[in-house]
Amino acid sequence: MANNNSNQLVTPQARAALDQMKYEVAQELGIQFSRDGYHGDMLTKDTGRIGGNITRRLVQIAEQQLAGQASQAGRF
Fold first, then answer.
1. FRET partner for 41 with CA separation of 20 to 30 A, picked from 4, 31, 47, 49?
2. How far is residue 19 from each of residues 25, 66, 72, measured CA to CA in Å?
3. What does the alpha-carbon distance between residue 29 and residue 53 come to, in Å, rounded to a whole number?
């Protein structure tokens, strides 16, 4: 079966940062990952909470970067 994953990273180096963010968010939410790397027994509710919080953080980061660019553009 072909891999039709549409979630390809534009910048492959971002994978480590996203993984780190995943573990940080899970820890903040009190969600434990298994030590062996298998996450198939996690509740859908928990994975959704992790993903939702990651998305919220990424949007905040993008908004901050855009606000910084807008303020720099106003200086010229």
1. 4
2. 10, 24, 31
3. 9
